[in-house]
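pasting input
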Amino acid sequence: MNEAFYITAGELAERGFEYLPAELDSSKHMIYSSPATLDFNSPGAKGFGVKRAGLVIPGSVMLLIAPGCCGRNTALLSNLGYDERFFYLMLDDTDIVTGRYVSKIPQACEELLAELDYTPSVIMLCCTCVDALLGTDMERVCRACFEKTGVRAAPAYMYALTREKRLPPMGLVRKSIYSLLEPQKRVSNECNILGFFSSLEDNNEIYPILKAAGIKKIHEIGRCKTFEDYKQLSRANFSIVLNSEARAAAQDMEERLGIPFIELTRMYRLDKIHNQYRLMGDALGTRLDDSEYLEKTKALVEDFRARHGELSLAVGESLDADSFELSLALCEYGFKVRDIFGTVGERNFVFIKKLAAVSPETRIYSNLSPTMMNFTPDPEIDAVIGADACYYYKNIPGIEFNSEAQPFGYRGVELLFAGLDKALAGEGEQRS
Amino acid sequence: MSPLAPDDSGACSVLYEMGGVTVICDAGGCAGNVCGFDEPRWFEKRSALFSAGLRDMDAILGRDDLLVKKLALICEQVDTQFTAIVGTPVPAVIATDLKALERMSEKKTGLPCIALNTDGTRLYDYGEQMAYYRIFERFATERLTVKKGKLGVIGATPLNTGETDSKMIKLALKNVGFDDVVCFGMDSGLEEVGRASECEKILVIAPSGIKAARLLQERFGTPFEVGYPSMGTRLLPSDEAVAATHGLKGKRVLIVHQQFLANALRKKYERAAGCEVTVASFFMMHDEYMRDGDKRLKEEEDLISLAKSGEYDIIAADPRFERMLKGTDVKLFPLIHFAVGGMLNKEK
């Protein structure tokens, strides 16, 4: 069998994005559902896939309209307490060929409501590749469900077939979950944070920084306990988008609700974080003072570097970061990143070019390449970051860095190094 | 409740350790469900199981040639003896000619290919049955000298047994005098399938294996019997353990599992605890192994009705069914079935 394919950052940067090797282009080979990256292939296997994301609206329930195979892994969500919120309209072989089930969906909604002793805020209609191929007009189906039941319905498109489209399923579901918001009088000192289905980690600096700038209330869907909390999101004066997959949702909110947005990127290079706060301040017409956090985090990184030296690291992609940006940051902090498991895209190629300048020998692997079946760990690695990297390097100190509470900004950097510190001290950081 | 294991998972389960390249003809989600949920060996034993990674335009334009090209590429990267293509809802919707795909693949790779017409709407045993039959039909062709005492087991998949290896099954069979046991597709690969005619007897431990066993009987005259090995305290406890089970003696019991395990457990409950037992299953039940009164279940409502009927004191079934017993006096005896709840015996 062939060895796991890799290309160095130097070689890749030299080839350019237009000339990616076939092994890094998922459309040119079969996809290896590596145990390391199941969440790529299986929306819902880990974290927030379409199914769980669709249920982020408080008081919502979901009707999964699918053949049995698409809903099988919802059993995993049972352990998270979602059992009572999932309902199924199972399709048989005639259904998927004829599409006859579409007319049964409003009836199924009515039946599920009869099972509940409360009225849900919304019925999320989760549809699959079958509807993608049949071209089902889900907006129309949602209207029919509302007419039949009086309860609002919204689509959750679990279209794995369209994963590489301009608006992939995780972008569409973000749009859907904010689609129930209705225009209301906006409040000048309130804002939204969009991008994640859970909230930012509680101690994130963005909260006090915005507070100091006069923002009194910050809404996040992950902190909404009730549908009333959720409805307040449309009071915001502006939104801060922290994940580009929420851009379509923010644009929709801008059009429908008149809420403008600013887009930031999750980064791990301190100068870039600082720059983003400066730009956000400019956009808001104020100066955001992040100096305290910048200095503190800078000292923290230097201290870690002094204590652990020039560690050799492997960085995965199942983590709360862009693997290439994080690797670039780590190299700039004085560490060696020997392996990256990542998906190269147009957007992150810019980081690869920069990485090539500081660490041209870094090996870049694609988790999706079938050759990864034969990956051999590098004995020189000291620590690993990312759930997938933890899988490949089973006996090396590592952190998954893939939590529900989302890291961002300086606090993200702090959490990263605190986690690594613990792992290197053998204090049992959670592993894959 | 969450759907039961589908046919594509069953097919993959049989093929998992056979040593071939298995391609799930999907966009990624089905492969994720198989690898991330229905195939617990994914985290223990490597297998060349891949997703075709179909995208909308591949499906709309019917790019079978691209799929075959990718398959040929992978055959250059991975040592393999055959290829298999497992169907999902996507090829079902666009009416992919899997037979043609099989022929195209064989021509391009030079390796035998079996394409399985699963579509994700049926249950796992349907996919298992198809995979067992096709693999024996294609590769168990040579008549070899029968080895006295060699027992072949068909039906040993995690979905049927809750086991990820054959240790417990072999140990149980050793205890009843079989030292030379092969569990086809579990700790054994295509080579053993090719030597199937060496078996003196076949033991079929799940209904999905019957069709393949009949094929071997017709082809080589190998006799088969159905049953389920008694694996100590696991799914099928010893008679002593049954007799000692608190609250079981003389009760009216409904066992819900795959038919052959349920039948074996019924015998024990009757023999060791004097129970009155009925077997029911959401999965395939062969008429010749059913007793009068045994039930085929189709919908959740069927089981709820039985629970409410007042005819049973105990229902022995996967704990995932517990919600269906709400509001009844029926007691649940947990009986792990991976194809239902996704739990292994060792997770009990």
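fyi The first helix of chain A runs from residue 9 to 15.
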